[in-house]
Structure to design on (992 residues):
């Protein structure tokens, strides 16, 4: 079994460098002085090159070959071989020059994207986007792991997923969402969000965010929360997971749900079984599964009526000027407004899927159907109108809103898969623990967390998403759980 | 000149890993959650091993050999060859097993030291100290760069210094300090420290500490200040220097002078010329020279009468309950009390040298004269009585107060050398800029900083301390400047 041991040790070392790189990134977003970027960029270039070189080395190839000869391996060993092989093959198939070109175009393009978005100036961004599409097509051709080019790119984020599989699910999702949204739109008793747009003291928001994640069992002994422009989660080892949040003084949900969302990611990372701590398998199963956990905690738990039975009186005490006389049920409804909107990151949990479908269809066209980038804004807008019934007033609120496309393609779908996985997993949790919502009313979340740890988190990257969802729920990904969840939740909120 | 270029590039890479290691350390002291230490320890083990392996590699030896063949090298190239050679020879002379043994003994011993100090229990610490002395003797024997074993160890921190050289200076220092302390002791008008021991709001202390270093031209665009148990300075690149301070609610100087002290170190690190940024020469010339700058800013500037002409009214406004009716001159005197005390880190700038002499003499006995570690506490106490006229009541306030000896020997002398270098450099600054103290009265410190940058900081590690002090002041290290500074400052404070 020495071959297996060697493979573990080799990839544990790679994981260690990834953690170091993660600290460099976390520090850059949270602490680093503004003028220090050049030094930091060189440091991260070094760590990333070191990771890449180690993965690509002949040693990796040999270790994998030796390990593959072994019999009677357990699931964990098999998973390491699978992941090691995946990384190794990616590394040897893609020329270093192509990676360098993608990195450079991404870095330059990101700066241009920021300026282009600021001024709603798509032509400024166009050449960079054009180039990145070309590079990513070349990348997919070289990698060639999926049945089609776009499938190959999707597989990078959601291993095992293909375009056809996602498209089938998204088609069902589209019609169900449209149906729900249409119905909600006919309501004569729609909830109103204005209460959330008053002024909320930032220090109190921060204190409450900390109080909430303490109750959610975020472990401050091996974690911390800070502030950053965009909330994110960073794992600096299996016993060091850090989240960030942002605080908007005039919109309460930004901080509270930003915190709960990242806390969901962190609970996942904190819940890996000790066996795989600090190994290459100490990672989320897929982006979709990871996102399912942030959304489960944020939306299914954090925006539930029961959650606010416990928390609303505490919020009323913190913000009496806004909430003292405001009824709890109305506050709960205000957190669950469903309406078409232009910006993805501000969308509610129902219409969110439509934002993703739009991007998914456009990515397919860019990667496989030779879509002319000149025409992208116009196609964005017309597709947007088809889906939402409204047209973005400008490209800033349209095609320029997200930076993802100056990095790659295939990531967006995982966000929507997260909603679907999350709802399916949660129905199983509820089936096995029908009294859980009663816990939430008492500010008690450890039964939920323990269940998720036992059935989801501890496995890390041992199983593929398709295996994991079956292991947890007994069936393949089934979007109907999300539709049922959405109908059961939102119809009553809208008075049906 | 390719050989030189390659040597630079090789050592720039090593420097980069050192910076990454420094961030890992900074984060550990400032941000890291308590329960995350195991992961961090493994990460630092990795970075340190990587640094060591690169320095020790055959490649290093070859690059040095090739560079040494070149003619007409400038001072900077020559300095790199000198430093590269020094590091390489250290690395190849000391077996990895010995380094591992020292690291392990140091880590275990540190934990035991903490407990031993807590309970004033020297026997508990003794076996670890005994072992470390043995290991460091072996280390010095293997390294064998100085005329004696202890000289070899001193040279690690103060390159070029020997025991004889230091002993000669310290002998002069001892008699001068003893003379000054004796005279001050006969004063009938001694300053009184009690005003500093009132309650000072920690938030206001923090704000003032930030305000002060802003005025001292600490560059927050490429630096930051945080809190930690023990103040320290960390350079994470040549454009990212971070300091920490601590706040004691009932002792004002801890924060204020801790901050100014570390700011002095940071101004040095921020002042390296661009030419050597992020290179192996972007480092202090020696520990003694580095310490000279922290002490120059802390003691010569920060504890000067002129400094407080500007700052005292501001402090009075922040702490009216303590300072409103307290005269400025008395406050200034309270900051400059000279008196024998047991604890080195709390000592004033005059008696400080005696604490160092005690350690210097004991280190010599431990490394070269086979001092029995059993007898160390007793010898400490009797030597302490000789120097200070008082005997520590227990080992906690005696031999167990510092952790240094579970790491190595030869570091302590550099602290006192810092005082001497600092005074000598400052007299030269004053000679060239006699009006500087008038600046301080206006809260203006950029003329001082610019002079130090131009004449000291920009050189980094290009010159050895003996060359640098001559370059700056035109003569070798001369302790008389410190004695004169001390007499001129403290005799008036004590009414002479």
């Amino acid at each position: 079994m020495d071959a297996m041991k060697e493979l573990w040790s080799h990839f544990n070392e790679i994981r260690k460098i990834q953690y170091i790189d993660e600290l460099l990134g976390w520090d850059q977003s949270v602490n680093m002085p503004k003028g220090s970027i050049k030094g930091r960029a060189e440091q991260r270039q070094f760590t990333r090159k070191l990771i890449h070189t180690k993965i690509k080395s002949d040693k990796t190839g040999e270790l994998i070959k030796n390990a593959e000869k072994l019999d009677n391996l357990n699931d964990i060993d098999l998973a390491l071989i699978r992941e090691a092989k995946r990384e190794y093959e990616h590394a040897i198939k893609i020329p270093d020059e192509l990676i360098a070109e993608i990195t450079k175009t991404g870095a330059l393009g990101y700066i241009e994207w920021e300026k282009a978005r600021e001024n709603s100036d798509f032509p400024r961004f166009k050449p960079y986007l054009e180039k990145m599409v070309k590079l990513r097509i070349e990348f997919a051709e070289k990698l060639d792991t999926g049945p089609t080019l776009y499938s190959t790119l999707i597989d990078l984020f959601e291993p095992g997923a293909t375009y056809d599989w996602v498209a089938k699910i998204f088609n069902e999702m589209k019609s169900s969402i449209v149906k729900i949204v249409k119905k909600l739109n006919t309501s004569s008793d729609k909830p109103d969000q204005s209460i959330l747009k008053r002024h909320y003291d930032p220090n109190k928001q921060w204190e409450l965010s900390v109080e909430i994640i303490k109750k959610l069992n975020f472990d401050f002994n091996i974690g911390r929360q800070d502030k950053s422009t965009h909330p994110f989660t960073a794992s600096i080892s299996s016993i060091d997971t850090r989240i960030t949040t942002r605080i908007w003084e005039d919109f309460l949900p930004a901080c509270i749900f930003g915190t709960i969302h990242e806390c969901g990611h962190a609970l996942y990372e904190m819940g890996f079984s000790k066996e795989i701590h600090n190994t290459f398998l100490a990672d989320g199963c897929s982006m979709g599964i990871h996102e399912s956990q942030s959304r489960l905690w944020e939306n299914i738990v954090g925006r539930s009526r029961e959650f606010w039975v416990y928390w609303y009186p505490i919020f009323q005490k913190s913000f009496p000027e806004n909430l003292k006389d405001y009824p709890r049920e109305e506050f709960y409804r205000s957190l669950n407004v469903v309406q078409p909107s232009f910006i993805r990151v501000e969308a509610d949990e129902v219409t969110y899927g439509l934002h993703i479908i739009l991007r998914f269809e456009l990515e397919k066209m860019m990667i496989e159907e030779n879509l002319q980038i000149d025409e992208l804004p116009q196609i964005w807008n017309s597709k947007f109108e088809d889906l939402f019934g409204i047209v973005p007033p400008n490209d800033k609120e349209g095609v320029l809103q997200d930076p993802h496309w100056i990095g790659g393609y295939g990531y967006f779908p995982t966000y929507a898969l997260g909603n679907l996985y999350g709802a399916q997993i949660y129905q199983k949790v509820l089936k096995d623990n029908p009294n859980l919502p009663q816990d939430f009313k008492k500010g008690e979340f450890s039964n939920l967390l323990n269940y998720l740890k036992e059935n989801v988190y501890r496995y890390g990257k041992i199983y593929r998403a398709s295996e994991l969802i079956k292991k947890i729920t007994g069936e393949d990904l089934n979007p109907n759980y999300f539709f049922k969840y959405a109908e059961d939740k939102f119809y009553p909120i809208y008075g049906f």
